[in-house]
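Render this sequence as a predicted structure.
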Amino acid sequence: MKIIKFHSEQERQKLFSKELRQNVNAYFKENNLSTKGNFTMILKTISVYSLFLLPFFAVLYLNPSFGVSWLLYILIGIGTAGVGMSVMHDALHNSYSKHKWVNKVMGWSMYVIGSNVFNWKIQHNIFHHAYTNIDGLDEDIRTRGIMRFSEHTPVEPIHKYQHLYSLPMYSMMTLAMLVGDLPRLIRYYKAGLMKQHLGNPFKEFSILIAVKIIYLSVFIGLPILNTDLLWHQVLICFASMHLIAGFIFALTFQMAHIVEGVAQPLPDEHQVAENEWAVHQLMTTANFAPNNHLLNWYVGGLNFQVEHHLFPNICHMHYPAISKIVEATAKKYDVPYLSNPTLFSAVRSHLRRLKELGRVSINESNTATH
């Protein structure tokens, strides 16, 4: 694994990083607030878990028709995404609670979508957060077949149309995680990342396999055994649940890093990125719909991605308040603060960026100018 250093010769960048930390710390101290979740976070957890669990219990115990069951599984998909974004995400960043055991237990919400905690911590907490939008390290912008997210990778003819087929493709995200966790864990093991991050191979592989078996037994096996639904009807419901959850998950994350104005800088030959880490996060991340309170509640503050990337260990309940501090400090030091005002404008910006990425690469552009 390459180690990238973030460094700038510009004094204003260093001053910005220092003052930003001081300003945010002062906010919590002056208001006598914990940076972690509060009672409101507990109520939210109950709400999103209810959205996830109650429809499933209705399928099992009310034994509704296929059509009604299908609609209930759609609600389960919406609840799945809500649990992942509002509970699991904070917990695995250790921002849900000041107690490590609470974060660990709530982080098990990852198993709600049938996925793996260890994989997520490596792929998301380390590769994505430390090296945001850096090609070759941030796996979120890794080119995957017909989807091209990095301007530094080759353009294939099919990419010309990716802005047209991208949204349906996003629906496959959680299904891809469901079946792709084992190959990913094997890849991390072979790369030495499991040893580097103190993972026990037997334990991690055992957990992954056990979780997959339990998850599939619950969400496919139980409805087949305990309801009048036929096996293929259960599979249709199960797939629909994942298509909904995957679409919500993927689009939410894409609107933060693959939109117009967001940079994809590369380190130099000495593996040094030319900006301070905090400035790099502001250059590679964008907020969206900051005034949409319902959206903010449902996506777990992920529409405030700038604040999340700067302060991942702060609970998302605080992001709207500290966003004003971040924006004001960025303006003072002439550091970019990117934000799309509405959900619709963010989706449009994302699709335009995909269209742009599907046409020309950085290397091709440089070759053409010479």
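Summary. The longest helix spans residues 66-92. Strands lie at 5-6, 272-273, 286-288, 338-340.
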